[in-house]
Structure formats: C-alpha cells, structure tokens
Design goal:
Layout lengths: L2 E5 L4 H12 L5 E6 L10 E5 L5 H12 L4 E5 L5 H4 L2 H21 L4 E5 L11 H16 L3 E6 L3 E2 L7 H13 L10 E2 H12 L8 E3 H8 L2
Helix pairs in contact: 1-7, 4-5, 7-8
Length: 222
C-alpha cells in the first residue's frame, strides 16, 4: 500500500498526474495539495487546501493521511514571472516552495521525490527563470536523500486554465515546425509528462537524476 502526495495538483501537469496516480494500482491513496479547491470524483483522491505558509501543519496532515511508510512525493509547482508579477514572488514558488516541499518529504520519510523542472535549468544561465530552476535542482538534494528525479520538459501542450501569451503563440506555430525539431526541443503534452512521472515512480521505467525532454518523449512512447 503506497500513498502519493502531490503539490500543484490543479496545474497543467498536476491535474493530469493526480488522475493517472489514482488509476494506477501502485497507490491506494492520493493527497492532492492545492491553493484552490479541486474537484475529484475518484475516492482514492483527497484534496487539501494549503496556504504555502504553515509547512509544519501540512507535515502533520500528511503524516495523519499517509503515515510514515510507503510515501511518494510529487512536485508540479511552477509559474511565470508575468503571473507572479515580480522576480521575488516567482522565486517564492519555483524555488522556496519546492525546497520546502523537499524538506517536508525528508521529514515524512518519503521514499522518492519527483519534481517538474524545466529544460535549460542551470545556475549559470543568463535567464533568471532558468537560474532559479537550476538553483532549485542544486539545493533540493541537500535536503532530500531518497530516490530523486527532476523532469525537464520544454514547451508544454495542454488545456491550460491560465492565459500565457508567449506559450499560446508558440503552440499556434508548433504544427509548422515541430516535425523538424529534435526530441530534446519538441513540445510535449502535460499528459505525457504526468505519464512518465507515474512510470518512474512505479518503477515501470528507469531514469537518472535529470530526465530531459527527449527522454520524457521516449519513455512516454513505450
């Protein structure tokens, strides 16, 4: 009997992930952590609203829900600077909250932690977005020593609830050039990323610390 704890459960990838985890017999219960209330019909799924402030209380709720054995943590948190409004606010979600979740995974004795990062994540990137993702990838292993995967997708395709102009333009142009792109850069569906997270966590697929966009495509097609 395994428990899945998912943060960012109502996002583009998170929503898909929660549903796929519920359909997989490897997990008997899923705790879907969200800022906004979510609606799930599967009895295996329990929603939990969280203000991203009281991490100690969240720890107690997770331990009450899943105990301290057979727990897997999944992080699908992510925003954009345009949504967050400031670089500081962006970093609070894409770095600080993710690192806090990794610390929580360690304290809850999670066996594995899977995190959605981004292609291009690097401490030395000229892009602030990618530097923050790189810093997150560098710091999470300092706090969590269990089985760890960072997935690094490129442009995500799917029915996004929030409007992102740059992504919408890129998606409209995708059919014209996607076939010419190598797998490393080819846009990928949120459903595919979620499928790969489930495959890795259930050990139906293998992978290293960093799962780049090409490997996500390859695992998804199996």
């Amino acid at each position: 009997m395994r428990t899945a704890v998912v943060i960012g459960s109502t996002g583009l990838i998170g929503e898909q992930l929660v549903e796929k985890l519920a359909q997989d017999s490897s997990w008997t219960s899923i705790l879907a952590i969200t800022r906004k209330p979510g609606v799930w019909s599967n009895p295996k799924i329990r929603g939990l609203n969280f203000d991203f402030l009281n991490w100690a209380d969240l720890e107690l709720q997770i331990q009450s829900f899943g105990g301290s054995r057979g727990i897997d943590f999944f992080c699908c948190l992510g925003t954009t600077i345009s949504q967050a409004k400031t670089e500081s606010a962006f970093k609070k979600i894409d770095y600080e909250a993710v690192v806090q979740f990794a610390k929580l995974a360690a304290r809850c004795r999670a066996e594995q932690l899977l995190i959605v990062s981004s292609m291009g994540a690097s401490l030395t990137s000229k892009s602030f977005y990618n530097r923050v993702k790189g810093q997150m990838q560098a710091d999470v292993p300092k706090h969590f020593s269990g089985r760890l995967h960072f997935l690094q997708p490129t442009l995500l395709l799917g029915d996004r609830k929030d409007f992102r102009l740059a992504e919408r333009i890129a998606i409209l142009l995708t059919p014209a050039f996607a076939a010419l792109l190598p797998l490393k850069y080819k846009p990928i569906t949120a459903s595919c990323v979620a499928k790969v997270m489930v495959a890795l966590a259930s050990k139906k697929a293998s992978g290293g610390l960093l799962i780049d966009n090409a490997e996500i495509h390859q695992i998804c097609q199996k």
